[in-house]
Amino acid sequence: MEIRVENGRVAHPFFVEIDSHSGKMDGDATHIKRFLSKLINVFADTDAAKDYLRRHGDTLIYEVYEKDIPEANGEVRFCSSITYPGKIGNEYFMTKGHFHSRPDTAEMYWCIRGKGYMLMEKEDGEHELEEMHPGRVVYVPGYYAHRSINIGNEPLISLPVYPGDAGHDYETMEERGFKHIVVEKNGRPVVIENPRYGRMRG
Ligand code: PAN
Ligand code: ZN
């Protein structure tokens, strides 16, 4: 269903269908695919990432279906976020993560499939980790960078909803990174300090 936009605002009700098994959103949603070749520096162990790339080829780590709702104050943007299962070294597949460009804006994530975590981290590195499983809604307050992490063996699917004018600041995390990462140790997920914190670009 097409969105009718007038004067930069959604001018008519609409709906979308989201498949709860695949996470696919129907219609003319923008479809973003994030492959490993573009995420090498996102993972703490870049050698393990390059090795994975050599052995498995370019792998889809996560994808997002997003409706093109105007990025305006008063609108609500939403998407379907699908993070696949797997690990680079001992670090789980995850999204890049970001602060919002308007840092005070909050977001809610409704998990509909899979098992994982929402890692949330403030500017000073103070962090919170909330489990994601079907039926759980995680609220990410303003001023927290956030990323989804898949610790299970099926796709982690969630539906993020956030203010239209939130925007995305990816730059900070590309440069500095999260202070904490989630890795598997003795078969269990644990939070450790990111060994590349502050120098994600090398
Ligand atoms: C989500 C994210 C989505 C993909 O819609 O954009 O999960 O993660 P990255 O944006 O970190 O690549 C959201 O948090 N929007 O604000
Ligand atoms: Zn966000």
Name the overall outline.
Answer: globular
Largest sheet: 6 strands, antiparallel
Order of neighbouring strands in the sheet with most strands: 3-4-5-13-8-11
Helix-strand topology string: EEEHEEEEEEEEEEHEE
pLDDT averaged residue by residue: 97
Bound molecules: 5-phospho-D-arabinohydroxamic acid, zinc ion
* Proportion of residues in helical segments: under 10%
What is the radius of gyration? 17 Å
Figure out the total of helices. Answer: 2
Number of strands: 15
How far apart the termini lie comes to 44 Å
Summarize the structure.
With 202 residues, the protein is mainly beta. It contains two helices and 15 strands.
Q: Can you walk me through this structure?
A:
The structure is a single chain. This protein is mainly beta and 202 residues long. It has two helices and 15 strands. The strands form five sheets. A six-stranded antiparallel beta sheet has the order 3-4-5-13-8-11, with no helix packed on it. A three-stranded antiparallel beta sheet has the order 10-9-12, with no helix packed on it. The longest helix has 11 residues, at 46-56. The structure holds 5-phospho-D-arabinohydroxamic acid and zinc ion. The site of 5-phospho-D-arabinohydroxamic acid has 15 residues, from strand 5, strand 12 and strand 13.
